[in-house]
Amino acid sequence: MSRKQYFFIILILGSLATVSPFSIDMYLPGFPRIAADLKTTIDKVQLSLTSYLIGICLGQVIYGPLLDRFGRKKPLYAGLILYVIASFGCAMTSSVDALITMRFFQAMGGCVGLVASQALVSDLFAADKRAEVFSLITLVIAVSPMIAPTVGGYVTASIAWQWIFIILAGIVSLILAAIYFFLPTGRDADNSVSLRPKAVLNGYATVITQPQFLIYTLAGGLATAAPFAYIAGSSDVFMNIYKVSEQQYGWIFAFLAVAMIGSTQLNHVLLKKYTSEQIIKVTLVYQSIVGFVLILGVYNNWFGLFSLIGMMFVFLTGQGLTGPNASALSLAPFKKHTGSASALMGSWRMGAGAIISAIVSLLHNNTAMPMVGMMAFCSIGGLVILHAGNAVVRHQGSRGEVEEEISVLL
To answer: Which helix (H) or strand (E) covers residue 261, if one does?
Structure first.
């Protein structure tokens, strides 16, 4: 693979994985304007974010077997076309309930990019290169929060929030063209993969019973749900509590994205000296400590606008280390069921994100506590799952060795 081809593949895979994050981040500055235009409240508009995350969660489970059965490109085309249609539907809504519904279908289409991009990494790159490739893709993803809210803020202020969804439809149309002309096909269609419900469930059962997949998917998925707490609560915290403008909120969001970009590049360097297992353990401890400090600070009113942004920056530096390493470790054991494994991993991540964002909305109390509390919960919970899961595996391994020795003696 030439350097130029490598660059284009990473760019396309990163763009595919960015469809959903971009779709989330770009309309956040428009929440107050959307609420006013649709004659509703911000917490009701926040449910359109929750419905989007639910759509991603369900959609990925559907796409996993389809990607294994029909190859990578056909499901990609179908999903992204659905996304484009639903985006125009979002632009034409006249009620918040219709927006919530159309966002669900938009997610059902766009989430194919998350599953396919991860499966294609396993198809196109050797196992020892995947964590590095996931870091580069995460770098592309991390750029979206720098661009999307800023663009969304200016579009909302200068034109109308409906144009955000029209722009998203145009972006995905360009990605579709890039996939057709430049993206390798990856693994071919496999006619042996059955789409019958029982066979699909058996395939997922095979994936779930793999200990390494289960541990790193559960721990990494909960830990990587922390940004969804931030996304769900940040527009209310910064725009309503700290009274920043739509454009200022976009720049704050962009600044905080630098934290994830920097740590993604750091991960690329750390992988030359440390394993993914070592990196993720240290990162979760680090984020858990920072999350606890955030809770104390908000409870005791220690933070002004800039100090809160600073602490959020420190916390989010961990995300560029957790996500790529958890992904690589989760998918490492698989060859045949890569699509299904990618779907389950992504579904759990987005499902956790949907739950966390809904909780932030439900706990809304005109303070930053729901946001920072759930961020800390995600990191601490991920750390607990990781250590508990590894402890169980070690215990089972030790018990298995003892039983083997006893059987030999007998």
So the answer is: helix 246-270
30 close to 48: Cβ distance less than 8 angstroms: no
Largest CA distance in the chain: 81
Q: Which domain holds residue 154?
A: 3-409
* Higher-scoring residue by pLDDT: 203, 86: 86
Q: What is the pLDDT of residue 165?
A: 96
pTM: 0.69
Assess contact for 65 and 203: CB atoms under 8 A.
Answer: yes
The pLDDT value given to residue 399? 47
Q: CA-based angle 246:249:254, to the nearest 5?
A: 130
Closest CA to 230 of 377, 41, 15, 20: 377
Residue 189: closest CA among 75, 78, 59, 113: 75
The CATH code of the domain that includes 324 is: 1.20.1250.20
Place of tokens 């235009």: 37
Instruction: Name the domain count of the chain.
Output: 1
Q: How confident is the model at residue 407 (pLDDT cuts 50, 70, 90)?
A: very low
Contacts of 376 (CB under 8 A, 6+ apart): 288, 291, 292, 294, 295
